[in-house]
Specification:
The complex is a heterodimer of chains A (81) and B (283). Chain A has 81 residues and is α+β, with helices and mostly antiparallel strands. Chain A has two helices and six strands; from the N terminus they run E-H-E-E-E-E-E-H. Classes of the chains: A alpha+beta (81), B alpha/beta (283).
Chain lengths: 81, 283
């Protein structure tokens, strides 16, 4: 498909569709991997409130802050060059 | 097409045909969750305004035959998009921001100038700061953007964002580099040493924080003036954004402690809710 986007209203659903949950502190965890927290692009853990999407790789989760989105745009530019 | 998506989401079409759905190169698929009667599971907009077919899947619709199957099917669509087609799946606003970031910044020439001259981790902050500045100049709120920079890079991120929004990268840091670079014994560290002082302390500028009260602002300004004079500065630009911050600055400048330190020739530049007051120190 040209693109898939989601609205914030579907964030929880999408995480559950990817077999992810949220721990008591709000961090996204991998249900298929002993509920271990999943890393974001910068290597730190990511909360569900901060979840802005997924990029290729072994399911890399993207935070919503501007620096993370710059890193996503850099990846996309590098892939098209 | 809507019927095909619906059939897929309800388990009436199985995996081999999924790849055909994913191959629909003009389809922009949006996933949302709205509960309530009458909401269709799949809506298709064929208007093709920008050559795209917009398909909306409402995961809160009662038309879904099985919520568990629906989650599984949406998960498969997302996984195929990310892993096989190698395209990101992003939240709507994040997607718009990424699309904007893929185009060159209106400050690209400035950004390119600092490439290789400042630490690479600061380049990311600087690009974010120029994006923030562009959004601010477009009249939109940048509170969330700035919070994102500060959350990741702390006071250094906040400082670079402030200096960038105040125009200091092009009016102070770039001329500083260009002047130093003309010296025959110029080395990168000559600029970087000065750069670090400016990023860490900005002796020529003060940025009013919305979280500080009037007393804190006065105390901080007094400390800043003493510090700034130590670095040979004769004036200080106080930057305030928002009515509350502007009001705080005006009241702080009426305080006797501050008045004792500055001369009467104060320059005020106010545009809407953005104000810069340049104060000159008593000698």
């Amino acid at each position: 498909m040209k693109s898939i986007v989601f609205e914030k209203s579907a964030r929880e659903f999408l995480l559950s569709a990817l077999n992810k949950g949220v721990d008591t502190e709000g961090f996204i965890v991998d249900k298929a991997n002993d509920d271990k927290r999943v890393p974001s692009l910068d290597g730190t853990y990511i909360t569900s409130d901060d979840f802005a999407g997924i990029v290729k790789g072994s399911e890399i989760y993207v935070k919503s802050d501007i620096v993370s989105l710059i890193e996503v745009s850099d990846r996309l530019k590098a892939e098209t060059q | 097409m809507g019927d095909k998506f619906k059939a897929f989401l309800n388990g009436e079409i199985n995996f081999p045909k999924l790849t055909k759905l994913v191959d629909l190169k003009d389809v922009v698929l949006k996933i949302l969750h709205v509960e309530g009667d009458g909401n269709a599971l799949v809506k298709v907009d064929n208007s093709r305004v920008d050559k795209s077919i917009n398909v909306v899947i409402n995961v809160g619709s009662k038309e879904a035959a099985d919520p568990v199957l629906l989650a599984q099917r949406v998960g498969e669509l997302v996984q195929l998009q990310v892993q096989e087609l190698e395209r990101p799946v992003l939240e709507v606003e994040a997607s718009k921001t990424v699309a904007e970031l893929e185009s060159p910044s209106e400050y690209q020439e400035q950004i390119d100038f600092f490439q290789g001259k400042i630490p690479s981790s600061d380049m990311l902050i600087l690009r974010a700061a120029y994006y923030l500045r562009t959004v601010h100049e477009g009249g939109k709120s940048v509170t969330g953007l700035k919070r994102g920079i500060t959350a990741r890079y702390g006071t250094r991120g906040s400082s670079i964002a402030n200096l960038c929004s105040g125009g200091y990268f092009e009016t102070y840091l770039r001329p500083l580099y260009e002047n130093l670079a003309e010296k025959p014994n110029f080395t990168d560290s000559m600029f970087l040493d000065n750069y670090e002082i400016i990023i860490n302390n900005a002796p020529f500028a003060y940025f009013v924080n919305a979280n500080q009260n009037l007393d804190e602002l006065i105390n901080n300004l007094v400390e800043k003036i003493v510090f700034s004079k130590r670095y040979g500065q004769h004036k200080l630009a106080i930057h305030a954004i928002g009515r509350d911050n502007i009001d705080k600055v005006n009241r702080a400048l009426e305080d006797d402690t501050i008045k004792d330190l500055i001369s009467d020739d104060t320059d005020t530049n106010k545009k809407g809710t953005v104000m810069t007051v340049t104060i000159h120190y008593k000698s």
